[in-house]
């Protein structure tokens, strides 16, 4: 294609597996070389970069300038290895679904055309594709992943088990990410900026009090605590502040074992778990839930079939 809008994009190859599975592609994909504007087509074309609008649903909010320049240099030498994905929104007009870094880097590299998979999708499908494509292919930080998971649940109406199937993660992993959004903004920002790791954050989230969470976070930063050190500190805090309704007066070593078990169960179920015992070694385990979907998730973790 020499001039913008002068020729129909030339078909090259079929759509990759990930997005194809998402949109339920079949063997009956339209194979014409000149697609109608709003057919549900699956093809790859060379599109002029000025015909592509940005993605309003882009889950990634920041791009590293140095990494972008490195990608641009790689594109100058090697060309585009992985095509971007777009949807057709009008005659000779496209909207980016995924691949914003590749599009920006291609412009920096001086490319006028870029290989693109063309899809026709409504706004919800586009949001879902953009989020899943970025989760699977981009180096998102933990908070960006958590926000993407949350948007897939709230905006696309997916349940956690459906989301897990879409992104290839189990329900516990998905829930552990979403729980991060309950942390104070300062801790979320530190996780986003790689000041702490996912392991640090997962340990801190097991403390209910936000003020205590922040105090523990500051100690972690100031003293460069490892994940294991933070986990030990969380267990100690839980032992020091037992449930006021508990009448447990057994030696602290037994309490510590119970708190350790409680910590492990909370991580396993992705929910705050409490254990209460008495002197006769009787007690109860509580796994709270706040919605029917969360209850169903817990039951599936327990492998309970109703």
TrEMBL record:
The keyword DNA-binding applies. Keywords: Chromosome partition, DNA-binding. Residues 45-135 form the ParB-like N-terminal domain. CDD domains: SPO0J_N (cd16393). Coiled coil: none annotated. GO terms for cellular component: chromosome. Pfam families: HTH_ParB, ParB_C, ParB_N. GO terms for molecular function: DNA binding. It comes from the Bacteria. One of its GO terms (biological process) is positive regulation of sporulation resulting in formation of a cellular spore. InterPro entries: Chromosome_partition/occlusion (IPR050336), HTH_ParB/Spo0J (IPR041468), ParB/RepB/Spo0J (IPR004437), ParB/Sulfiredoxin_sf (IPR036086), ParB_dimer_C (IPR057240), ParB_N (IPR003115). Belongs to the ParB family. This is ParB/RepB/Spo0J family partition protein. It comes from Runella aurantiaca.
